Amino acid sequence: MTQTDLTRLSAADLSAKLASGEVSSVETTAAHLERIAEVDSEVHAFLHINARAHEVAASIDARRAAGEELGPLAGVPLAIKDVLVTTDMPSTSGSKILEGWMSPYDATVVARSRAAGLVPLGKTNMDEFAMGSSTEHSAYGPTHNPWDLTRIPGGSGGGSAAAVAAFETPLALGSDTGGSIRQPAHVTGTVGVKPTYGAVSRYGAIALASSLDQVGPCSRSVLDAGLLQDVIAGHDHHDSTSLPDAWPSMAAAAREGATGQVLKGLRVGVVKQLQGEGFQTGVTQRFTESLALLEAQGAEIVEIDAPHFEYAVAAYYLILPAEASSNLAKFDSVRFGLRVTPEGGGTVDHVMAATREAGFGPEVKRRIILGTYALSAGYYDAYYGSAQKVRTLIQRDFASAFSRVDVLASPSAPTTAFRLGEKLEDPMAMYLNDVTTIPANLAGIPGISVPNGLAPEDGLPVGIQFMAPAREDARLYRVGAALEALVEDQWGGPLWAQAPELRAGKGVN
């Protein structure tokens, strides 16, 4: 098979061809590394390429040739968001304060991926310490959207989403604190999943906001995302927030959903607070069409009032900075990472101040200041404490909604990908990109973004988000795969298959 053929295959198809011996992991890995070499100078999805990728692929081929029973994703390439620590590649979290830092251990999801035989291609770009919605806050330069290189790929995990959309990898790992997997999926025409909080270990994920962070999969299909979540999910004693649950197969749920049988009688709630003013016409149009597709297959559409959702962004931007301020205190110039000594020397305090001034970017500094203020004496109850009370009210809104419906639906983000630089000087406009995704993080429930068309105004991809009760991740995979199949029927195939034509003259051919 040609390089183009191999890079366009889904992870599920690659898995079948690898198992049958039709292709080798060495061939597959080489094709994707060649693709990266061809296009990543324009996309800038990767911060580091794994020098041992060929070696790892060869070892998988040798084990398969020896008759060893391997997992379904053995030999399939994988990209890793740079928020996840790795022993054989630098882990920077998109920040100069960790430039070149090598971790002494692998994140649990990385270790599980290696054990399952996936081949790490490299580390992907991201907003510094996962603070952003456009991957423009990376200390190493922005990532570009493969559909239109003048536009953002979403954030903070724009590198992982762009790598998948640009056919540089079939699978990627991301993290989602307020939408950092789902919003990039929306603007790049990919699938992104935020699992239930605690379903996937956070051990080795450089912390932003510990009560909100969640690791999850990025892919070009719901089934591929399910295959990857099956690898990374499960209890981890290293993570005190890890759930002890035994999880059903998400891949099996996706395959069941693709038959369409799950839609008859399904109750789909539409939250009125997650649509309307501020939403691009084309995003709303595709969302309405998707609801009609579901209804035509027997689903019942129910309007849901979640009155406290309108306060979600405000509460989130108190809770997140407060937790970030605490988590980032470890970057103190003493233990690890960058150390800057002021001219003429100085005390530890002087070195710490100089290091954090040089090492952190402006968005990180902004959020540290906000968070430190919210936690300060005399303001804790007024700000952080009040935000946590709002969080409880949002969780109650979800509980009320799920007493009436099986899943909730909304657009995954209000607009298509905006132009690079367009919102950099307006933090509030940037923050509002996550208005539909933030509530799920505050409640700890799972969410999935599935491509559901191209906006007529600009021909760029949009996504629909489904949310389910905690621990009901499999329900999302069933519904997501069912909608995916309907959208593919409507558009004559998967949206990513249209990408080469759409990119002509403005994106990656």
Can you lay out the helices and strands and say which pair or pack?
Blueprint: H1 3-8, H2 11-20, H3 25-43, E1 46-49, H4 53-65, E2 77-81, H5 108-115, E3 119-124, H6 158-165, E4 171-175, H7 182-188, E5 191-194, E6 215-219, H8 222-232, H9 250-258, E7 267-271, H10 281-296, E8 300-304, H11 312-327, H12 348-359, H13 362-375, H14 381-402, E9 407-411, H15 427-431, H16 438-443, E10 447-454, E11 461-467, H17 473-491, H18 499-503
Parallel strand pairs: 2-3, 2-4, 7-8, 7-9
Antiparallel strand pairs: 1-3, 4-6, 5-6, 5-10, 9-11, 10-11
Helix pairs in contact: 3-4, 8-9, 9-17, 11-13, 11-14
Key words describing this protein structure:
globular; 509 residues; alpha/beta; 40% helix; 18 helices; 11-stranded mixed sheet
The helix/strand class is alpha/beta
Tell me the distance between the termini. 19 Å
Q: How many beta-strand segments?
A: 11
Helix fraction by DSSP (H/I, runs of at least 4) = 40-55%
Spatial extent as radius of gyration: 22 Å
Helix count, DSSP H or I runs of 4 or more residues: 18
Q: Whole-number average pLDDT? A: 95
Silhouette: globular
How much beta, percentage-wise?
A: 5-15%
Low-confidence stretches: 500-505
Number of domains: 1
- Which CATH C-level class is it? Alpha Beta
Major sheet size, sense and barrel closure: 11 strands, mixed
The CATH topology corresponds to Amidase signature (AS) enzymes
